[in-house]
Amino acid sequence: MKIGILSFGRPQTRETEPPYETKKLLEAALARGHEAKIFCEPFFSFRQDNDKLKIFYDNQPLPMVDLFIARTNFIEDQSIHSITVDALTSVGIKIINSTALALSATKNKFARKLLINQAGLPTPRSTIVRDVSTIATEAEAIGFPLVVKTPSGSGGRGVFLTENLATLLPIVDYLTVNHKIPLLLEEFIKEAEGRDLRVFVTGDKILAAMEREAKPGEVRSNIHAGGAGRPIELTDEEKNIAVAAAKAVGLEIAGVDIIRSAHGPLILEVNARPGFEGLEQATGIDVAGGIIKYVEEVKE
């Protein structure tokens, strides 16, 4: 099979070293007897010749590709990038993680939160605030301490813990004055003691899972924020809601973050472009190989 890794970011140079996950996917595809290549979405162009669409990559006709694995790392309006997806799918090329639903929710935590809630899945209590004059009322409704999140950000960026209104207001002032963005106020799950679960979903299956623990003095358990990971055995309920959460936002491959509360497991986040270096190190599972195996099953 000829597999394309579709990256939506522009490399600094054509010789820029690809991320760990992209390199591992290439290696796994080659190890399983496939051809694989990275395609950067900004280098695509399209030509309408009479009734036929011609697709070019890096000023050359697009080479034969059986399937793309999308790694959606853009922050702009998704409609800019959906043109590429629409063009590729119109000529019969399957792209994993590229539904309109997935693209629209890719970089907006709030959109994903709403989709997860609409699917009836358990999440921490939260409120989306657009009018900062209501922030005190909304915060009191959630209760302190609480977590403040911005619409975008990965690796734990854009996440703040506030203990009271006095510590919340300066954060709100900075984020709304400098960035003019809405904010998510979310219930803080104290009993989790700085731990959560990262569950890697492929289709209807759990490929790997780990428990992450924040470093001392830190609320974010993300590996990129200094958190530590270890293998974890999931309950059936945790497995089921992880798969359901990925489906709710239109993803076939996803990293689902779950927190264990006194009321049961809650969905924190669904990631469309999950890193898996820390997950592989913590569990010893070949996540990249598992992704390529899933791709093989999908293509059959």
TrEMBL record:
One of its GO terms (biological process) is SOS response. Residues 113-296 form the ATP-grasp domain. One of its GO terms (cellular component) is cytoplasm. It comes from the Bacteria. The keyword Metal-binding applies. Pfam families: RimK. GO terms for molecular function: ATP binding; metal ion binding; ribosomal S6-glutamic acid ligase activity. Keywords: ATP-binding, Metal-binding, Nucleotide-binding. PROSITE patterns: ATP_GRASP. This is Ribosomal protein S6 modification protein 2. It comes from Candidatus Uhrbacteria bacterium GW2011_GWF2_44_350.
